[in-house]
Amino acid sequence: MRFLLVVFLALTVVACNDEVTIKPNSKLRLEYPTPEYESVEMEFPYTFKKNKEASLISKRNGGINLKYSKMKATIYLTYQKVNNKQSIDSLLYDAQKLTYDHTVKAESILEQPRVDSINNVYGMFYMINGNAATHSQFYVTDSVNHFVTGSLYFNIKPNYDSLYPAIVYLRNDVRTLMETIEWN
């Protein structure tokens, strides 16, 4: 019995000489390139700036897709011509309804209004937090002739925690796109 006690005390003394090093929790570090923006001028009645990382795909229906193949994400843009007062009301209703249809999965929806009276651009930028299908949506209009909507979608199952760095990066691109729209 004394032998076991001596061995135990010897091991305790030897084990206590090493300093314990506390290591910080590791986190996934995703880095994206610094965005470089270029002007997009096409046959559409508006221009904007897009990230050079995004490839532009023009659609027949007047839409534009900005595809981020490395992030498996796409920003879908749709242009509609405003015809009369009733039309702008229905376009605004549809854009807002499309955003708030995500409240089933969203934790919160933050709104950021856009008012640029110099360039006659007015709209709303929506940041949708949670496991919703989209994480950013917006609309801009001049209230008389033009109406543009945009939505950000990932081509994977929504997992807000894992996608968060990409969401933040692409939200900045969506915001820049929205803020640089000018009517022709």
Helix content: 25-40%
Give the CA-based shape.
elongated
Give the C-alpha Rg. Answer: 26 Å
Number of helices: 3
β-strand percent reads 35-45%
Which segments are poorly predicted (pLDDT under 50) over 5 or more consecutive residues?
Answer: none
Mean pLDDT: 85
| Spatial arrangement of strands, main beta sheet | 3-4-5-9-8-7-6
Determine the N-to-C terminus distance.
94 Å
Largest sheet: 7 strands, antiparallel
Number of strands: 10
- Find the structural class using helix and strand composition: alpha+beta
Helix/strand order: HEEEEEHEEEEHE
Task: From the structure above, extract its key features.
184 residues, seven-stranded antiparallel beta sheet, three-stranded antiparallel beta sheet, 3 helices
Describe this structure as you would to a colleague.
This protein is α+β, with helices and mostly antiparallel strands and 184 residues long. It has helices at residues 2-16, 85-100, 160-179; strands at 37-41, 46-51, 55-58, 64-68, 73-81, 106-116, 121-130, 134-141, 146-154, 182-183. The strands form two sheets. A seven-stranded antiparallel β-sheet has the order 3-4-5-9-8-7-6, with helices on both faces. Strand 3 (55-58) and strand 4 (64-68) form a beta hairpin. It starts with a helix and ends with a strand.
